[in-house]
């Protein structure tokens, strides 16, 4: 079983958020998973061009480091997303990465995978970022099992509490994957997406040929 942890703080070894991801990876490892942390800020990942080539052809028009990371995510069962709070949102690097995953939303590519979110802040509002990251996981078809955050500027010791929580979440992620844990509220969101997005896919069937084919093959057409 593989678990990937995505880092999006540009602060490298000095990053507080990185500490949470390291704890999460440790927990997942001790529960039996093979883990990899990927610092996307050190990679060449360009902005999404909005060209819809992914929806049309099933692959991105740009050749940079994005696809290699995406291939690793696709080969994993678990995905941990992390970001510091940057003006009550994720870092620009994380947002660019999420935009590049737009086809994963259209195709529900993370269906069957499990994940959770991690965030550190200076003064607060971790929940805004944590909710945004977990909602993104769910939007891609994955199941979110929890979140951990700390306002390290306001309370430096809070990183220790959040690290412990991240470690436990890492362990729990492996359990959730093993037992194929079900979350009815998230299943409702997944089902609603499949009910409504088909109309968008079929209305754009010429422009989004690859998306259309995927939906038909999956039996999600109506
Ligand atoms: C550009 C920028 C914007 C930030 N915006 C916020 C913010 O809106 N709210 C907040 O509480 N902290 C904010 N912070 C502080 C960081 O979230 C905080 O220092 C975080 O722990 C940094 O994580 P890192 O060490 O993993 O990079 C901001 C920091 C930067 C550099």
From TrEMBL:
Q: Which GO terms describe its molecular function?
A: oxidoreductase activity
**Lineage top rank: taxon:** Archaea
Sorted keywords for this record are: Flavoprotein, FMN
Q: What Gene3D superfamilies does the record tag this protein with?
A: 3.40.50.360
KW Signal (keyword) present: no
Cofactors required:
[4Fe-4S] cluster; FMN
State a single Pfam family of this protein. Answer: FMN_red
InterPro entries, per the entry: Flavoprotein-like_sf, FMN_Rdtase-like_dom, ISF_SsuE-like
Q: Does the keyword Nuclease apply?
A: no
Location of the NADPH-dependent FMN reductase-like domain:
1-154
Concerning its family, UniProt says: Belongs to the SsuE family. Isf subfamily.
Record-linked PANTHER family: IRON-SULFUR FLAVOPROTEIN MJ1083, NAD(P)H-DEPENDENT FMN-CONTAINING OXIDOREDUCTASE YWQN-RELATED
**Full protein name:** Iron-sulfur protein
Q: Which organism is it from?
A: Methanooceanicella nereidis
